[in-house]
Amino acid sequence: MDPMTQSAQISSSQGLADGQNSAAKESKLSVKDLIHWRDPKKSGLVFGLSMLLLLSLAAFSVISVASYLLLALLCVTITFRIYKSVVQAVQKSGEGHPFKTLIDKDVSVAPETFRKHVDASLTYINRALKQMSRLFLVEDLVDSLKLAVVMWLFTYVGAVFNGITILILGKHSGNQEPCLIHNHHISEKVFSMMFTSRNYVTS
């Protein structure tokens, strides 16, 4: 193979890898920003929608919630499609399909991305299977007894709460904790500044 062609392929593959790494870093940063409420509007929207979904799952079945969500989405898209068609017919414009840019957009998953996520999840699955076999086959008696006690306690938890209620409580506490930690750090900084200024005045 020509050395120039080989170097060009290597540089293109490196550029693709760098682009994937940067995209992964940006996605991690965006999730972290949502959790720590860096942008209150986006975090509030995500928190509200996810809480509404969990409350809906607590009141209705998964099939009903999914059907209502898809039905609402279809109602919105069909209504908008009919509205744009009527407007185009009245104005005699040839704008075409209102969702043409979204239809033409490539939504397929790249094989490399799929294999990367499968390999990452396979590592966790193998680790979990190994841990389960170790616990249920009583490789260590103390650890298996601990698991038995925890499962016995969870029977009482399950009699009081269901899974959706625990998810709602966990999500609420998970969204409140970063804000409390952030406010705690701010309070510490304020008190330290006040204490330093007071010592400076007294001295």
From TrEMBL:
Keyword Endoplasmic reticulum: yes or no? yes
Q: Name one Pfam family in it.
A: Reticulon
GO CC annotations, alphabetized: endoplasmic reticulum membrane; neuron projection; postsynaptic density
What keywords were assigned to this record? Endoplasmic reticulum, Membrane, Transmembrane, Transmembrane helix
State the organism's lineage: Eukaryota, Metazoa, Chordata, Craniata, Vertebrata
Question: Per its UniProt record, what InterPro entries does this chain match?
Answer: Reticulon, RTN1-4
What name does the UniProt record give this protein? Answer: Reticulon
What organism does this protein naturally occur in?
Sander lucioperca (Pike-perch)
Concerning Gene3D superfamilies, the annotation shows: 1.20.5.2480
Compartments where found: Endoplasmic reticulum membrane
* Superkingdom, taxonomy of origin: Eukaryota
Signal sequence interval, chain numbering: none
- Please report the stretch or stretches of sequence annotated as the Reticulon domain: 31-185
- Annotated region (Disordered) at 1-21
Any single biological process term in GO: neuron differentiation
Membrane topology category = Multi-pass membrane protein
Residue intervals passing through the bilayer: 45-71, 147-169
